[in-house]
Specification:
- There is one protein chain.
- The chain is α/β, with parallel strands linked by helices and about 200 residues long.
- It has a single domain, classed as Aldolase class I (TIM Barrel).
- Helices cover about 45% and strands about 20% of the residues.
- It has an eight-stranded parallel barrel with strand order 1-2-3-4-5-6-7-8, surrounded by six helices.
Length: about 200
């Protein structure tokens, strides 16, 4: 199982604090990092990504470039994590080949979205949101059935996201997910090493 931390600049308060948080998570043994900062301009994101990539490379942690697919092509970065709409738009407007990427994780919130993501070229899925979460307080969670239903037709890699913690992550794995992705608690923990240990099987 991979534990993937999703960045949130707002929760950290500053770019320096975010970089320090990512450094501590990497040192503690996080599996992967997603730099998910859609509110930044492409140039701002690029600058931050380059700095975070240095941190992740130092610790041997995989970093996903999120959302900005054209930037991923330009930087020749092999690992991308995309909203479904970004992938749809790319397929409608570009002739470039996604085979340049080693891993393309696409977010899906239903079985139909999961099927569409796979048809458009995803080779891994992120299913959300599984449990109730403050980030989406007004939205009904999809529940474990989303994972089970997707697993019926997809044998590849599934990440689960949304309200996952040390008390319930085993349920997610039992339902068929391979990995878990966590944002708020990863960004807010005061003890990164303990945070990681709590998810050990």
């Amino acid at each position: 199982m991979k534990i993937t931390a999703i960045s949130n600049l707002e929760l950290c308060g500053s770019k320096e604090a975010l970089k320090e948080k990512i450094s501590r998570l990497c040192e503690a043994g996080i599996s992967e990092i997603i730099l998910r900062e859609k509110n930044l301009s492409v140039s701002e994101y690029c600058a931050l990504f380059c700095e975070v990539l240095q941190i992740c490379n130092h610790f041997g942690v995989r970093l996903f470039l999120h959302n900005f697919l054209d930037l991923a092509f330009k930087m020749e970065h092999k690992f991308v994590w995309l909203p479904l709409g970004v992938l749809q738009n790319f397929r409608q407007n570009s002739t470039r080949n996604l085979s340049e990427f080693e891993k393309i994780v696409v977010s899906a919130h239903s079985t139909d979205e999961a099927k569409l993501a796979l048809n458009l070229g995803a080779n891994a899925l992120c299913l959300s949101h599984i449990f109730q979460t403050d980030c989406k307080a007004n939205l009904e969670p999809k529940g474990l059935d989303l994972i089970r239903n997707v697993r019926e037709f997809w044998g590849g890699e599934i990440y689960a996201l949304g309200g996952i913690n040390s008390a319930n992550f085993r349920l997610v794995l039992e339902a068929g997910a391979d990995n878990i992705a966590i944002m708020s608690s990863a960004m807010q923990t005061q003890n990164e090493a303990k945070f990681i240990v709590n998810f050990k099987i």
